[in-house]
């Protein structure tokens, strides 16, 4: 019987998969399905699952959320493959500062997370959660800002992430209130994806007292450059797997021409390592990155999870992580989930083959 507090890992039989998979994964030697227990609910889930892919660089990760369609999910697969097999851009720094991520939780839990990651000078606070009141968001931001200032003084920073949860009018009201709540830390550093569409972001940016960061409008958009064309954001949030890999995300940064923040897509330590390799290569990195989310897992794909020390993640450790042995203290993934990922892998691989044929 499996233990819900343990990681689960199961290798796929690649020979049993179809020709599309074998063609797309021709440089991949092993694929492992993982399922990880979480220590807090985030994005409505308490376990995170996905794929790990072994190539000449070591591990890559592809873990699109289950509500993403095949076309969008295929970019995550491409991102995992390229991490595992393609060369990386040249690093310009040896470590990357990171923020503590505060889920849409009660204030006591928020305080515990800030204190547990006390080396982080920046906090990203989730807001606009379905079923929660704006007053709860305001309280959470206020206590986080106050505690960060106690720990770090004038170096404390607070940002929020609404995951496109507001209309423009709602965002204007909430941003004013949340900016006041963050006053101990000098107000909000920025608001990440407060509204859904890039057109709404553009309208909001010209009215908002708070700088705007684009996340979904970059990583989920058919044309991420619309953010630049409409002058819809002050900051670009980059996530390796959804953008098709480290190289693709690096190139997009230059095309967007916006200050970047590299963030996790609730990745395992493998995906975190890819994010650090990207962040370490960016010419300018003026914001702490959202890459300390391995702290949200009770157990990880590695026995020694890749988490920040003193508020930073090292490039040396990132490179070592990609070449690490997977956690030997693991159970097997439930057979139904293994089958589901095998089927999904076939669909994603077909989408990649079709896309490549039309280039």
What is the CATH topology classification name of the largest domain?
Answer: TIM Barrel
- Please outline the major beta sheet: 7 strands, parallel
Indicate the proportion of strand residues.
15-25%
Instruction: State the share of residues found in helices, binned by percent.
Output: 25-40%
CATH class term of the largest domain: Alpha Beta
End-to-end Cα distance: 48 Å
* Secondary structure: number of strands: 13
Average pLDDT metric: 96
Biggest β-sheet: strands ordered side by side in the sheet:
6-7-8-9-10-11-12
Specify the structural class. alpha/beta
Instruction: Please report the number of helical segments.
Output: 12
- CATH homology superfamily name of the largest domain: Enolase-like C-terminal domain
What coarse outline follows from CA principal-axis ratios? globular
H/E element sequence: EHEEEHEEHEHEHEHEHHEHEHEHH
Indicate how many domains the architecture comprises: 2
* Low-confidence regions: none
Fill in the keyword field for this structure.
359 residues; alpha/beta; Enolase-like, domain 1; TIM Barrel; 7-stranded parallel beta sheet; 12 helices; 19% strand
Question: How is this fold's topology laid out?
Answer:
Blueprint lengths: L7 E4 L7 H6 L5 E13 L2 E11 L2 E5 L7 H16 L9 E3 L2 E3 L4 H10 L5 E5 L7 H19 L4 E5 L6 H14 L6 E5 L5 H8 L6 E3 L1 H4 L6 H4 L5 E4 L7 H11 L3 E3 L6 H13 L30 E3 H8 L12 H23 L2
Parallel strand pairs: 6-7, 7-8, 8-9, 9-10, 10-11, 11-12
Antiparallel strand pairs: 1-2, 2-3, 3-4, 5-13
């Amino acid at each position: 019987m499996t233990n819900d507090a343990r990681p689960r890992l199961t290798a796929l039989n690649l020979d049993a998969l179809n020709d599309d998979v074998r063609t797309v994964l021709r440089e991949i030697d092993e694929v492992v399905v993982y399922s990880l227990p979480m220590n807090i609910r985030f994005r409505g889930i308490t376990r995170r699952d996905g794929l790990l892919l072994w190539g000449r660089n070591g591990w890559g990760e592809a873990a699109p959320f289950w509500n993403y369609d095949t076309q969008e999910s295929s970019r995550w697969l491409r991102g995992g493959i390229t991490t595992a097999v393609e060369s990386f851009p040249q690093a310009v720094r040896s470590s990357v500062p990171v923020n503590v991520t505060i889920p849409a939780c009660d204030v006591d839990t928020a305080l515990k997370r800030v204190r547990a990651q006390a080396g982080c000078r920046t906090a990203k606070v989730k807001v606009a959660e379905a079923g929660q009141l704006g007053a709860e968001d305001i309280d959470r931001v206020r206590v986080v800002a106050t505690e960060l200032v106690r720990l770090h003084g004038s170096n404390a920073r607070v940002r929020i992430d609404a995951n496109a949860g507001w209309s423009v009018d709602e965002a204007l009201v909430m941003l004013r209130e949340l900016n006041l709540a963050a006053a101990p830390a000098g107000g909000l550093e920025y608001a990440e994806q407060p509204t859904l569409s890039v057109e709404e972001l553009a309208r909001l940016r010209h009215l908002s007292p708070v700088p705007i960061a684009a996340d979904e409008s970059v990583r989920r958009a058919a044309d991420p450059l619309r953010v630049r064309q409409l002058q819809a954001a002050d900051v670009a949030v980059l996530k390796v797997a959804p953008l098709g890999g480290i190289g693709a995300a690096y190139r997009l940064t230059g095309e967007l021409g916006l200050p970047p923040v590299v963030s996790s897509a609730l990745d395992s330590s493998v995906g975190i390592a890819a994010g650090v390799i990207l962040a370490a290569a960016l010419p300018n990195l003026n914001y702490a990155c959202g890459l300390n989310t391995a702290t949200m897992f009770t157990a990880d794909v590695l026995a020694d999870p890749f988490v920040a020390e003193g508020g930073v993640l090292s490039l040396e450790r990132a490179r070592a992580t990609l070449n690490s042995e997977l956690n030997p203290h693991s159970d097997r993934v439930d057979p139904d989930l293994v089958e589901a990922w095998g089927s999904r892998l076939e669909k994603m691989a077909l989408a990649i083959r079709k896309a490549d044929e039309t280039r």
